[in-house]
Fold:
Amino acid sequence: MEKNIAVIKGDGIGPEIVTEAMKVLDAVAKKYNHKFNYTEILMGGCSIDAYGVPLSDEALKIAKKSDSVLLGAIGGNTTTSPWYKLEPSLRPEAGLLKIRKELGLFANLRPAYLYDELKGACPLKEELTEGGFDMMIMRELTGGLYFGERSTEKEGDQMVAHDSMSYSESEIRRIAKRGFDIAMKRNKKVTSVDKANVLDTSRLWRKVVEEVAKEYPEVTLEHMLVDNCAMQLVRDPKQFDVILTENMFGDILSDEASMVTGSIGMLSSASLREDSFGMYEPSHGSAPDIAGQNIANPIATILSAAMMLRYSFDLDQEAKDVEDAIEKVLKEGYRTTDIMSEGKTLVGTREMGDLIVSH
Ligand code: NAI
Ligand code: MG
Structure:
């Protein structure tokens, strides 16, 4: 298989961690006789320095023509970097918002996985996480409260603010389909999260999700109210496989789920649309505090590359090889600083990448 991947190393630790992910992709290509062609483009602070804009039209064109995008992270120290003295539309994050919009990415996937080897970092009691957990949160990215009309006006003697929330059947259907497709590649369970006891958008959400579920008879569907889901994530995280939810609920629940795993350097993410195209990146930022020191954990980015193999290129075995290699390296006791604990062997960014490649 031959694929064209647009690579955005970005700022801070971005170049270091993406380099390791590319090493792993190359190892996969070699083993299975695939060809991955990389085209590097600039986005974020490095693009501001080179071209005066966080994402050039030229770079966007290359991303659009590729089969998928691998992204490190963008941005600098938000109090000291000169990038943050620019107007908001010229700052590093504006590049990220623009590329998500221009590429039509409407579904954000964030796995929360607890490695047996890293259980010590999980803030939950051990009996709740016995055997680990492995869930995937799928958040709608382009609708709902964050994109509705808003206003603040004077009513009588006080100010009143309004934010409106809307979802169309087609917006719900396309993300629900993606969610069920992903459940088919996993443990075949979808928990659709809403607030259908109060909100009309949630009642429509539930109705459309049930319609879509009929096309996936092998997948078990359950509905859960968002407030209950927030509790269940810390009460019994093992019950979840795919959590399917709208924009704001997903924003909050995915952050909650990531904290339950306890290790930010280990969490991958993907943004998808209807076709196989996707943008894959770690959940964390550019960590300018540790950039250039060969101490960043590259695993979140390597796991994101594994998601690219599975969800964009349909290479399930290849993705599993990468995940298994990571698991083995952890079992052998190798750790970067952020996940280091007593009795383990400390390694740098490059060494961690090499170890994963060698497995
Ligand atoms: P951050 O995620 O970059 O860092 C938070 C803390 O976690 C820091 O102490 C950092 O050293 C540590 N950390 C993060 N990733 C790590 C890794 N792979 N290995 C070891 N330690 C790691 O979040 P922060 O500090 O709030 O933001 C820094 C910059 O990143 C800002 O400019 C922010 O806007 C940007 N950012 C970019 C994102 C993106 O490109 N998608 C997402 C989030 C933040
Ligand atoms: Mg958030």
User: Anything to note?
Assistant: Residues 13, 73-76, 78, 93, 96, 264-265, 281, 284-290, 296-297, 300, 338 surround NAI (ligand 1) (CB under 6 Å).
